[in-house]
Amino acid sequence: MAKKVLVTGMSGLIGGLLKDHLLKKGGYNLTALNRRPVDGIKTVQADISDLEAIKPAFKGQEVVVHLSAVLTEATWEETLRVNVNGTYNIFEAARLAGVKRVVFASSGSAIKGWEDVSPYKDLVEGKYDKLPKTWPMIGHQHVRPRAFYGASKVCGEAIGRVFADTYGLSILCVRIGTVRPSNRPENVEQRSIFLSHGDLMQMLEKCIEAPSSLKYDIFMATSHNKWGYRDLEHARQVLGYVPKDTAEAFY
Of 6, 113, 165, 173, which is most buried with the most CB atoms under 10 A? Predict the structure, then answer.
């Protein structure tokens, strides 16, 4: 029987990629929770900041992939409304409906503040001659947001921890690297944090399909980049995530 998956923010770049990937893969019955209709997909149109309005979308769903968010240029009030309160609403609606798992699109912005200090600053500025032979990797256990967007994602991870521990809802958080429509790194910084479409789809699918015994975790997600600093070993060990692409293929 097809697995019922609800995707928030399906009209965005990542949501569209996930829709196409899962439809091509087969075995999934997709629903969108979106502010505007998604062609060819059953869509519940509602704003995630309104808990009562979004509840109908969760009935009968097995997994929710929560992608909807406002980005760095949003005001704090909008960031709070959507990224913090809206994420709480997603977890709460999932709990009330008996959903088994929420895959939460967190962000590499949760640890982006490390790029302000060496050696990570030199990495993202392309000053490779200043780098030591090796550098400590930044992993799922680290928190250092640079801006309020990143802070809102850390808050979402923390709210998810409460839902997992208190209610047993499986919450898997993915700190997504830089994903571009062009599917390639577009500047020097992105040589470190590039995440290809294919690698991201692998990560999200592995989270959707992870064993039910996995109740909470945070995973870093980038491609296998030579100048990367985000630790992928935890995702490999827990999920079997092995990125196929690399930023170096483009320069």
Answer: 6
C-beta separation of 217 from 198 below 8 A: no
In this structure, what are the phi and psi dihedrals at residue 48, rounded to the nearest 5 degrees? -65, -10
CB proximity list for 67: less than 8 A, separation 6 or greater: 7, 8, 9, 10, 12, 14, 15, 18, 105
Q: Cβ distance 135 to 114 under 8 Å?
A: no
Q: What residue numbers bound the domain in which 130 lies?
A: 3-250
| Amino acid letter for position 137 | M
Q: Which amino acid is at 23?
A: L
**Beta-strand runs (E) in 159-202:** 170-176
Question: How many domains does the chain fold into?
Answer: 1
Domain containing 70 — which CATH number?
3.40.50.720
Q: Facing residues of 175 across strands?
A: 106, 220
pLDDT tens string 186-232? 999 999 999 999 999 999 999 999 999 999 999 999 999 999 999 99
Helix axes 197-209, 13-25, angle to 10 degrees: 60
Sign of the CA dihedral with 86 first, then 87, 89, and 93 last = positive
